[in-house]
Amino acid sequence: MSALAWLFGLGFLALAGPLLFHLIRRTPKGEIPFSSLMFLRATPPTLTRRSRLDNLLLLALRMAAVALIAAAFMRPFFNNNVKLDFADVPGRKTAVLIDTSASMKRADLWAQATKKLKSVVDEAEANDEIAVFTFDSKLEKRVGYLKKSDAANLLQQFESLQIQPGWNQSKLGDALVGIANRLLESQSTPDDEDESSEVSLSDSKLQVVVISDMQTGSSTSALQSFRWPEQIKVRFDPVATDLGTNATLELLPVDENDPEQIRENVLVRNSKGSTSDQFSVSWENSSLPATPFLVPAGSSKILRVARDANSLSSDKLMLTGDDAEYDNQFFAIPPLSQTVNIRYVGDESENDPEGMLFYFKRSLIETPAVSYEVAQQRTTSESNEPGMDPEFIVISRAVSTEETESIDKLLKRGVTLFVVLSDPAMLDSTRTWTGVASMEEASEPDKDDYAMLGSIDFSHPVFAPFSGPRFNDFTEIRFWDFIRPNLADNVQVLARFDNDTPALWHQMAHDKSDIYVLGTGWQPEKSQLALSSKFLPLMMRMIELATKTEPVAANNIVGDSIKPPLGYDRLVWPDGKVEFLEGSSTQTLNLPGVYAFNSSSDSTLADVRVAVNVDPAESQINTMPVDQISALGVEVGTHDTSQEEVERQRQLRDVELENRQKLWKWLVLGAIGLIIAESWLAGRTDRTSRNFESAEQGTANE
């Protein structure tokens, strides 16, 4: 026999009530007045040694009723003598998430993290399983699930990996979402590599232990759109350091009012709670003294940092006066100017708004990094060609035999040719380049009868930048005058008019040069192309492909992925490692510093340098409150230990047994029966007593 609420057993103390009441004699109900007692004070009956119990049966009924009621409140039940063992309780499945982002490089945070991991393993119980994951901008599994008995093996495997914090940004939200999905998926389908240890995962209690510095710069946005599973508990085990000062710097865009670019704007931020506010900034290899400045904690400041002759080509800006050095460098590519030489073979004036050259030259937007030199060859009678080696040639008129031979020599060197068939008379002199087999007879241009671009090959590099839904609409451009060619089989059509006539096509020359042919002109009398928003990016895209200098973001953050420029097959990392690139696959940049793309086969291609810096969010080192994570729906806490779980299951079993047996109902019914019997017996006893007293009083009166 057992009970759910033993505390109600104190109700048995109420048994003393009926016993005391029976020991205390009540005042007799029949009274006979005596004159000699009129001056005495009446006193209630008291309990004395001479008190004796009377009406024992009535007393027994009353005490039994009280006992049954007290027992009913205790909710008793018959135990089936089944004992729960720790082996019957499912263990906890714990995924340990260790932060390896850049901010974990501070002081001894990583050493603290490894100690925390050992503590988690030591706290585990015999039937628990533990796996180790690391996270920064992505989640990685390091050690699969192992039992507590393999704790030494788990720690040894983790140490053998020689993991250290990297340079990526911390994305705590992504890591939590990723590990939650893995745990849920493994409940139904264990991983092949851990099948032996995860077959019982569906019976396990799932929990996550996060070991991190919990810096406020860690991204938690992924949790906003994720419904956290209630069965997964998360415990945060933060690490901290006493070093409280952290400042970071960033180079702002070049000041257009400083053409020599010898002074640049530098933004410095000082974290909240910093104990220092005095810093200095200088360029590497600069002979000038460092620029000192003061930035109060929690604020930022922009200052001008000068370059000298020794640092004009420097790519590293350095900050001193900070406790944490991991973000005290900023890499920037010095501004380098490239000149693109273009030959324009056409007879129109560059100042004539009715000609094509007028719009072509205005589409060439120069930047500090790129400038354009356009040399025009007006007529076929000009014997002297422009004295420069072009990288891009535009032909808008018929060419002579000498010009054809000259241009063909350039094509053998890899120069890109763009033929604009604004006049059908050009076909005879350019047929070797245009790929036109024959021509259909065209009607006279009519302003009321126009064509639009009907189909475009957005997979081709020329139109790839326009493939997005915001840029792929070319239907507002009207064309009135265009040729109707029949093309050779080796020609690739990039765009067609809505009547299926080729508009722009491409072919290769000498297996190394690109030739693009436009079946119309862009002057206003022939089309609206030059007046549209697509003309400028289309011309710039062709020139980018021609010069093999496809734009690459010069400033990136660690973890960014970029595609190598066309023609480049090697990547030199900041640490000097040389990686040979395959195809056009993207490259993930995992180290801060300056990278260089170069070509192993073409020495004429200049290196393309790329600067990579630590994400500014990693410099926000103040501790994130756990309540901020909990507010996003994460179940913060831990699952019960085996001992606690055994006790909880025992209580659940007892409640189930008590609910099934419901002995308290029978006890209450018994108590009610006793109360009824007690009431009947008490009434009968009282009537007998009254009759006896009445008889005595009558005898006395006689």
From TrEMBL:
Domain VWFA: 93-234
Residues annotated as signal peptide: none
Gene3D superfamilies linked: von Willebrand factor, type A domain (3.40.50.410)
One Pfam family matching this protein: BatA
The keyword Membrane appears for this protein: yes
Membrane-crossing residue ranges in chain numbering: 6-24, 56-78
Statement: the UniProt record of this protein carries the keyword NAD: no
Keyword terms, alphabetized: Membrane, Transmembrane, Transmembrane helix
Domain of life: Bacteria
NCBIfam families reported in the protein's UniProt record: two_anch (TIGR02226)
Protein name: VWFA domain-containing protein
Organism: Mariniblastus fucicola
